[in-house]
Amino acid sequence: MTNNYRYRGRDQRTTVDADQVEKEAYRNGTSSIDQAVSDDRLAGAVESFSPDHADDMDVSLESWQADDLAVDTLIGATHEELLRRAQLLKGLYPFEIDGNTLRYTGDGFGIYEFLLCICTAPTITKGGYVRLPRLFERIVGHTSASYFGPDNRCLHFGSPRTPEGPAGFADAAALLAEQTNEFIWKPNNGLDPANAGDQGVDFVFWPPLLDNRSIAQQFFLGQCACGNDWDTKFDDLNLKKLFKWFDAAVVDPVRLFATPFHIVDAVLIESSREAGFVFDRARIVGAFERYLDKSKIEDYNEEVRSLTLEVLTE
What we know:
The protein is 45% helix and 10% strand. The longest helix is centred in the first third of the chain and has 27 residues, at 63-89. The protein has a five-stranded mixed sheet. It has twelve helices and eight strands. It folds into two domains: 5-106, Arc Repressor Mutant, subunit A, CATH 1.10.10; 123-300, Trna Endonuclease, Chain: A, domain 1. It is elongated and about 60 Å long. The chain is α/β, with parallel strands linked by helices and 314 residues long. It starts with 7 loop residues before the first helix and ends with a helix.
């Protein structure tokens, strides 16, 4: 992987191929890296994945040579992406790379496997699969809150909401105001709460105050993006738009952006500038395994297991 800004789009597309290799290894125990790269990606390799050095060649290539070179480059880049993941996560990476083979070494239904299945599910908007992003919001909310401090309180804010949670945006806001004495509900004239949605806020957390004064607190606002269009969502949580509904917080909130996808470095820099602190798959897994009190998400364990298995066997 180059992690060069010029090649950021191409490098990010390679993560999709790496996900397919991982899913195949997760499903079958092992996967051949070159065979697991999808046929449609190989078919379009010449157009969508020209080798870095192709522009520097002084000789023209026969079509079959260009095809072979592009395919080799694509497979090589996928292998490099898998190595990058292993280096980032070290012992938390549930796979082992042995030459051209990827071997699954996990114990069945870990957080990495769940995030991988969200990214490789046939849909996240139909049938039982709609539960994938909803579970992601709740799990990553607790995970990111724990990463920033063990005593942080987390409130799910996004839509749709659970029956036991606040019914609508105004109700979620009222609950947050009740617990913090900030984010007081005060829509600008003409705004209709029925059309508020969630304003891009999927979860909120805040650290306890040592002096018990509920003023000038630091809030963290989290936005989640689980679809393939995640890289178009960086401005969905916009503070100027959000504070049309509230008295603005005294201290500017910190924006967080969470996605189950792996993000290459050049794209991570760009997305962080636009969306705030970014939790991609590597960061979520690290925070989940090192900082989260697992009792906070035990109510979701069975559904995570069921949905992961469903995606794995589809």
